[in-house]
């Protein structure tokens, strides 16, 4: 027998702003801007509007890796978008990303400027623009893109599914926690088996696929994300732990993780980034 009363969906779903738990304040069933406000703009061609969540950090890691390679044109301004305050619904942000989610990139180095949204699309755009971290040889490129798109399709089950019901929902419900714990453990095993054979996700080369997957699944195995390390037996995925630790030691990764961070220890917070010296 279920321990909560059975729910029968009404004929037509209606929006009840009070019922959604931690994110009820910002989540809405409609798209578009809620208020008029332009985005700020700094001096570099690349303007990033983001936050240091896993989806944000993968892009700042890539930008810092490009700079570490000596790609000077990858210099960027990174502005913080406070999603708890609904800044993703400003008219300026919606013009950069009609989906109202961080990260969003505007490249003023093209005429007219190029807007790019969805972190995977941003990573491919930057990797192609600078000719780095996305292999050119067709089969290794396909392998890299396969793991990159694997992250885009898989992480919503980890964050929006498991993380939401295990850590954020107003009550603990066994059915969704079981459903998503099973899926996340399966995903960790997919990574673990792949990394048993390879140094990086796509083979011998560190690519945008590693940068995209690490903030999500590295977070689970190294940083007790959702306080679920024990529940998921995260440390048992030894190859994922080995791979995540190797990535996390990279100086560019350590820099990228701090950009647009407005919480945690003071020395790790860099809410806005306009030059390398903001991180030095
Ligand atoms: N598939 C998107 C997901 C982006 C996403 O979910 N961003 C979250 C923060 S991690 C967000 O901006 N949420 C605000 C909202 O849902 O209103 C991507 O990879 O860029």
Describe this structure in words.
The protein is of the alpha+beta class. It is built from eight helices and four strands; from the N terminus they run E-H-E-H-E-E-H-H-H-H-H-H. Helix content is 44%, strand content 6%. The longest helix has 31 residues, at 138-168. It is globular. The protein starts with 45 loop residues before the first strand and ends in a 22-residue tail after the last helix. Bound molecules: glutathione. Residues 26, 53, 55, 83, 88, 100-103, 118-119 line the site of glutathione (GSH).
Question: What does this entry show, briefly?
Answer:
By secondary structure, the protein is of the alpha+beta class. The chain contains 8 helices and 4 strands, in the order βαβαββαααααα.
Features:
280 residues; alpha+beta; 4-stranded mixed sheet; 44% helix; globular; binds glutathione
Helix-strand category: alpha+beta
Q: What is the overall silhouette?
A: globular
The largest pleated sheet is described as: 4 strands, mixed
Helical fraction equals 40-55%
N-to-C order of helices and strands: EHEHEEHHHHHH
Low-confidence runs? none
| Head-to-tail CA distance between termini | 57 Å
Mean pLDDT: 95
In percent terms, what proportion of residues is strand?
A: 5-15%
Rounded radius of gyration (Å): 20 Å
What small-molecule ligands were found?
Answer: glutathione
Number of strands: 4
Strand order of the largest sheet: 2-1-3-4
How many helices does DSSP assign? 8
């Amino acid at each position: 027998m279920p321990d909560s009363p059975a729910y029968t969906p009404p004929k037509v779903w209606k929006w009840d702003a009070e019922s959604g738990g931690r994110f009820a304040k910002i989540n809405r069933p409609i798209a578009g801007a809620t208020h008029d406000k332009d985005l700020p703009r700094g001096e570099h061609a690349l303007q990033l509007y983001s936050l240091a969540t896993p989806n944000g950090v993968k892009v700042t890691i890539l930008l810092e890796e490009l700079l570490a390679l000596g790609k000077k044109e990858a210099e960027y301004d990174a502005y913080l978008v406070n999603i708890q305050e609904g800044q993703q619904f400003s008219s300026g942000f919606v013009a950069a990303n009609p989906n109202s989610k961080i990260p969003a990139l505007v490249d003023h180095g093209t005429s007219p400027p190029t807007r790019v949204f969805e972190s995977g699309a941003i990573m491919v755009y930057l990797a192609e623009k600078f000719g780095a971290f996305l292999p050119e040889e067709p089969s290794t490129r396909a392998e890299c893109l396969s793991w990159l798109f694997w992250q885009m399709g898989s992480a919503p089950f980890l964050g929006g599914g498991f993380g939401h019901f295990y850590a954020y929902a107003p009550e603990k419900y066994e059915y969704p926690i079981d459903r998503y714990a099973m899926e996340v453990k399966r995903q960790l095993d997919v990574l673990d088996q792949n990394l048993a054979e390879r140094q990086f996700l796509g083979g011998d080369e560190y690519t945008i696929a590693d940068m995209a997957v690490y903030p999500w699944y590295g977070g689970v195995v190294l940083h007790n994300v959702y306080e679920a390390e024990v529940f998921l037996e995260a440390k048992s995925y030894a190859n994922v732990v080995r791979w995540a630790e190797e990535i996390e030691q990279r100086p560019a990764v350590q820099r990228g993780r701090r950009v647009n961070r407005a919480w945690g220890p003071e020395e790790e917070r860099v809410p806005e980034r306009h030059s390398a010296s903001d991180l030095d």
